[in-house]
Amino acid sequence: MPLALLALAIGAFGIGTTEFVVMGLLPQIAGDFGVSIPTAGLLVTGYAIGVVLGAPLMTALGTRMNRRTMLMLLMGLFTAGNLLSAVAPGFGLMLAGRVVASLAHGAFFGIGAVVAADLVAPDRKAGAIATMFTGLTVANIVGVPLGTFIGQALGWRATFAAVAALGVVGLLGIARLVPQLPRPEGTRLRRELAAFRNVQVVLAMAMTVLGFGGVFAAITYIAPMMTTVAGYSEGAVTWLLVLFGAGMFLGNLLGGRFADRRLMPMLYVTLGGLSVVLAVFTFTAHSKVLAAVTILLVGALGFATVPPLQKRVLDQAHGAPTLASAVNIGAFNLGNALAAWLGGLVITAGLGYTAPNWVGALLAASALVLALWSAALERRTPARAPLAAPTAVPVHH
């Protein structure tokens, strides 16, 4: 494994921790700022919207510089945003810090996925992307539970200060381990935008929004759902997040392995399974044991879609993958924002803390329909001539 993949995974670990840790701390943050839990859920929505906006914006800015420098700048921005969240005197500034940190997220994973894919042979690209995303899944096994524990023991501000320190470690790792890859010849914003004329790229991104949105509909409100419905203690939420992270880790590895062999069948199985499991979660949430098993399955099925969806976009974008890759990361977070908002709506409407699971099931089922449609279109459409590939860049391992 190229050491550069390890550096990318370190950065992904920091970003994954800050993205997901807030969900275990929503009750404390809401209490400190005197806002409702659905209002505190805006910290998830705001972060996700920042990723959606930041992915194309930061990637477009990055087309004028080499990829390692851009990755380092993104980690610096991420660190600054988390520091702002840690010291914010009011909910508005806390939310602003989340948005600042999130601006780096989409471009980091988008550019990082392209770099990871370029470091390995063509038949190992999805596996390399999955290796980078392993940092994100390990964050959910180690970083998020540890951050939740720190937040419950020392206050949530300590958690965000620790995440800012992780950002510094990620920046140093990229500076030391990622090779100095020059910007590929012919990389221009207009060329990158041309990839979006391909309906398959757009469909893959829509699948990403709906499929991953299904996961977040349930997981955003996991703390109040598990404490008020399943009967878990507040401290047990940490271990439930460990389970979710373990599921993500396993699903990501499986997704990376099978996406290089049978990409579309992998999507059918994972999206269909996710829809069923989320619907069942409405009932299993009332049992401690069954709720724990369901959380593991939601993590596994949800993250098994990540490598195949990201590879689908890279394949369909042909010779101009950077912006499309970053925008697809934004699509994951658009799904997060949509799901957190819809989940908050059904809770506010008085339907209870399990109602977001039905929202998630419908979103995942919609993604499955789009996957079937995409495959049908592909069977009927002659192979599309790829854009001329950019000049090859020598990679130094």
From TrEMBL:
Q: Where in the cell is it found?
A: Cell membrane
Q: Which domain of life is it from?
A: Bacteria
Membrane-topology annotation of the record:
Multi-pass membrane protein
Classification via InterPro entries: MFS, MFS_dom, MFS_Efflux_Transporters, MFS_trans_sf
Among Pfam families, the record links this protein to:
MFS_1
Q: Where are the transmembrane segments?
A: 38-58, 70-93, 99-121, 128-150, 156-178, 199-224, 236-254, 266-283, 289-309, 330-352, 358-377
User: Principal place where this protein is found?
Assistant: membrane
Q: Does the keyword Transmembrane helix apply?
A: yes
Protein name as annotated: MFS transporter
The answer to keyword Manganese applying to this record is no
Provide the alphabetized UniProt keywords. Answer: Cell membrane, Membrane, Transmembrane, Transmembrane helix
Q: Which residues form the Major facilitator superfamily (MFS) profile domain?
A: 4-382
